[in-house]
Design goal:
Elements (H helix, E strand, L loop, with lengths): L27 E4 L7 E4 L15 H11 L5 E8 L2 E9 L4 E6 L4 H10 L5 E7 H4 L5 E2 L6 E2 L4 H12 L8 E6 L6 E9 L2 E4 L4 H11 L18 H10 L1
Parallel strand pairs: 5-6, 6-9
Antiparallel strand pairs: 1-2, 3-4, 4-5, 7-8, 8-11, 9-10, 10-11
Length: 242
């Protein structure tokens, strides 16, 4: 996760040793890999399953951080649904919009996606194509789309999420990276029968540009809006440590 119980990022927390999880309240450890997103993680347990189910890929952390650079967007926002607390990956309360980034089909995350659809918000789900693309994926005959893009279980979840929102305006997309040509192919939306075409939206290039601009080897190369999260003292200390 990017934010602890005090909504502090690793690089902006004055005392990481006191950091706790916003959900299970256990202590967190600051992870600062050189080539990946700095984040909080739970301490490992030797003989027990961790109480907290939150475990995220680098893609998930990075795309949330990219959304955090946009005005009025907040990330990792807790919401209560029934008797449980979930965390929305990214939310814009002014516009009533939310984003969920899916990189796993564990029981917890499946429960979360089913619960969030009850909020009545305009939620769009973005799947990690690196995790869920099928080995049988091929270009369509016009070379614009992708046929059999998603693995069966992920595709069934995508169909379900579309059906409970608005089938005429699909709310599920897939971020496809390095599938054929070694480059980011962009965001794809379902057409029919597991055939997907690129999303025609002017915001997509900006989102992907910010996604790829996040650089934890040279922090000052990050988008200017990310610097709002980072105190100058912490930036200098982290840069000196690299």
């Amino acid at each position: 996760m990017l934010l602890n119980a005090n909504r502090e990022a690793v690089w902006a927390c004055p005392d990481p040793a006191t950091s706790t999880c916003p959900f299970c309240k256990e202590k967190l450890v600051a992870k600062r890999p050189l080539r990946h997103v700095h984040h909080w993680a739970h301490y490992p347990r030797e003989h027990d399953v961790p109480k907290c189910p939150h475990k995220e890929s680098d893609w998930h952390l990075k795309i949330k951080l990219a959304y955090a650079t946009f005005p009025d967007w907040e990330i990792e926002v807790p919401v209560e649904i029934g008797d449980k607390t979930y965390r929305i990956d990214a939310i814009n309360e002014k516009r009533g919009e939310a984003r969920e980034f899916i990189h796993t089909l564990t029981p917890y995350y499946l429960e979360k996606q089913h619960a969030l659809r009850l909020l009545g918000m305009n939620i769009k789900w973005i799947f990690d194509g690196e995790e869920f693309h099928s080995a049988r994926c091929r270009y369509t005959k016009d070379y614009r789309g992708l046929r059999r893009l998603m693995k069966p279980k992920a595709f069934q979840l995508a169909l379900f999420l579309n059906q409970v929102t608005n089938p005429a305006d699909p709310d599920v997309a897939v971020h496809v990276q390095e599938l054929f040509n070694g480059e980011d192919m962009g965001i794809y939306r379902h057409w029919k029968e597991n055939v997907w075409y690129p999303v025609d939206n002017k915001k997509i290039p900006t989102i992907l540009t910010r996604f790829h601009a996040i650089d934890f080897e040279e922090l000052m190369k990050n988008p200017e809006s990310i610097h709002k999260w980072i105190k100058k003292v912490q930036v200098k200390r982290l840069v000196d440590s690299l």
